[in-house]
Write a structure and sequence with these properties.
Length: 324
C-alpha cells in the first residue's frame, strides 16, 4: 500500500490533551502538521484523530483516521481494585501496590469516574468489545464475576462471585513489616550504591506487603463502568492468547486506556509494545495516568510518558474519538 506523506502546516492549533488538566498537563507544541489518514476503512463509523512526534519532520504529525467500530476494541490496562472499597488495600505500614500509596490509588478512582467511564459508556454500543487486563490467571472467584476468553457472560454468577471475593479479602490481613531499622552496606561497593541496592524504591515484597498479597485474586476497580459482556484478559495467560482471541473476533484496531502510562500500559500483556505488532493501536492519552513518584499530581508525569510513547505510537484523546 502506497502512503503519500503529504504534510500541511496547521495554523495556531489548540494545545493537545487540554480537556482534563487535573490529570494530564496540556501540551502546547511548536510545529504541527496534518497528514493523510494512516487507517482509512470503507464504511467507517468511527473517526479517530491521532498524533505522533517525528523529529525528522520537526514537529507533531496528526491524521484523521477512519475506523470500523465493528473491528475496534477498547482495552484498559490494569484497572486494579485497590483502596476502592472492594477490600483490597495498600498494605501498612510500608507496603505498596498500584500507584503505591492510598491517596494516589483513590485519585485513580476519580480519574476512572471523570474520564474513563464517560468515554467507555459513549463508545460501548459502537465497538466490538470492551475489555481490560488483570494480574495472574483466571481463578474460581473471578470466573464467576467477569467474562473472559474462556468464560462467556451467560456462565457468570456475579452476586456469588462478589460474595466470595469480599469474604476472602475481609479475611486477609493487609499488614506488612515496617521499614528495616538497620542493614549492612556492602564494603566492596560505593556506599551510595550499596545503600540504594538495600533500599529499592518499589519493594512490594520482602515482607513489606505481607504474606500472600500477590496471590489474591485482584478485582476490577469498583468505580469502572463494567458490563457483563465486557472481557477480562489475564496477564498470566499471555499475549498470544489475547491476540488470537481478538483476531477471531475480527478486531483490527485497539483504543488503549489504563494504568500506568509509563509502565504497565507499555510493557505488560495488553501493553502497546505487544498490541502494536498486530493491531492499529491508538493510545487514548487522557484516559491513562502515569506513575508520579515524589509529587502530588500525575499531570506532568503523564504528559512526559505520552510524549515518549508518541515517538513510536499514535496517541489520541477522549474528544478526538467520535462517531462518523
Amino acid at each position: 500500500m502506497l502512503y503519500r506523506n503529504e504534510l500541511r502546516k496547521l495554523d495556531n492549533p489548540p494545545p493537545l490533551l487540554a480537556d482534563y488538566p487535573g490529570f494530564v498537563e496540556p501540551m502546547p507544541c511548536d510545529d504541527r502538521y496534518l497528514a493523510p489518514p494512516v487507517v482509512d476503512e470503507p464504511d467507517a463509523d468511527l473517526l479517530v484523530r491521532a498524533w505522533r512526534f517525528w523529529y525528522n519532520a520537526r514537529g507533531i504529525v496528526e491524521m484523521e483516521n477512519r475506523l470500523q467500530g465493528k473491528a475496534t476494541a477498547i482495552v484498559m490496562v490494569h484497572p486494579w481494585g485497590i483502596d476502592d472499597g472492594w477490600g483490597m488495600e495498600t498494605p501498612e505500614p510500608a507496603g505498596l501496590a498500584f500507584f503505591c500509596v492510598r491517596y494516589k490509588n483513590e485519585f485513580c478512582g476519580a480519574h476512572i469516574r471523570t474520564v474513563v467511564n464517560p468515554f467507555v459508556r459513549r463508545l460501548r454500543p459502537h465497538v466490538a468489545l470492551v475489555g481490560c487486563s488483570m494480574p495472574l490467571v483466571e481463578d474460581p472467584i473471578r470466573k464467576l464475576m467477569y467474562a473472559s476468553i474462556n468464560t462467556p457472560p451467560e456462565a457468570l454468577n456475579r452476586a456469588e462471585g462478589e460474595r466470595q471475593m469480599q469474604a476472602l479479602l475481609r479475611s486477609h490481613d493487609f499488614t506488612g513489616k515496617p521499614l528495616v531499622s538497620e542493614f549492612e552496606l556492602d564494603p566492596d561497593l560505593p556506599p551510595a550504591r550499596a545503600y540504594m541496592l538495600q533500599t529499592p524504591s518499589t519493594d512490594a515484597y520482602h515482607g513489606y506487603n505481607g504474606e500472600g498479597y500477590w496471590e489474591l485474586p485482584m478485582p476490577v476497580h469498583r468505580d469502572l463502568d463494567w458490563a457483563p459482556t465486557d472481557r477480562v484478559f489475564y496477564d498470566g495467560e499471555g499475549y498470544p492468547k489475547v491476540r488470537d482471541y481478538l483476531k477471531r473476533l475480527g478486531i483490527r484496531h485497539v483504543l488503549l486506556t489504563g494504568y500506568a502510562t509509563d509502565m504497565c500500559l507499555k510493557s505488560t500483556t495488553c501493553g502497546y509494545e505487544n498490541m502494536c505488532q498486530d493491531f492499529n493501536v491508538f493510545i487514548v492519552g487522557d484516559a491513562t495516568m502515569a506513575t508520579y513518584p515524589g509529587v502530588t499530581t500525575p499531570r506532568f508525569a503523564t504528559q512526559v510518558a505520552l510524549h515518549n510513547a508518541a515517538l513510536w505510537q499514535l496517541v489520541t484523546q477522549v474528544n478526538w474519538v467520535r462517531l462518523a
